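For reference, the entry.
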Amino acid sequence: MEILSNKKDNFDITDDMLQEIIPIATKIILDDLPSDDELNHIFSKSFERKMKKLIKQQKRSSLTNKIIFYSKRTAIVFLIVLASLFTITMSSEALRTRLYELVIRVYEDLTSFVFSTNDGEESLNLKIIEPKYIPNDFKEVDRVDNFIINYKNKNNIEINYMFCEISSNSIILDTENAKVENISINGNRAKYIEKGTSIQLFWNDKNCIYLLSTDCYKEDLLKKYKNELIKMGKSIK
């Protein structure tokens, strides 16, 4: 066994060392994800109100946190994979490729979208592009900075809209046992994901990432809300 000195001078981080660290970091990430029981837990209205207040107090200008939306039957997990996760600088193109492959391999029941930008590329600091079309019975009820907008109707059905600038991160959507369909939104390829009564519509253009999601709670409403989300998506330009 190789014994490492406590001296920090002339310390080299090798590819072999990084390969040993990555599985450990991955296990930490997986252990941190909520269990099925936690995802199905029904929180009190008081708890949800407090959580919304806490979220509003957070300053989010970009995807720098791991964000989890809880609902009765589904959870959309945005897992941000950053170089700082390993507290080292990963500048090797080969290492970036291995990290991408690792994400795909670990989350076998999920779909991972990995976006990469040049390290020296400046942020565009874009303002949120809002949907010009909103279903007639829906009104905006909440907003988190220029990041997330929530709409709700009188039947308490919510439509969530997320917008962010593309950066070096990964977005992972739950597609296990889901119906996945490729559609077009303003000339961009989009993923329509239907799982139970939950719907997600995800796409990106050259600069931004977009996600519309809802849970209509009734299977006979799926077609209606699929059309509504597509209309909303096409109005975002």
In short: The CA atoms of residues 197 and 221 lie 8 Å apart.
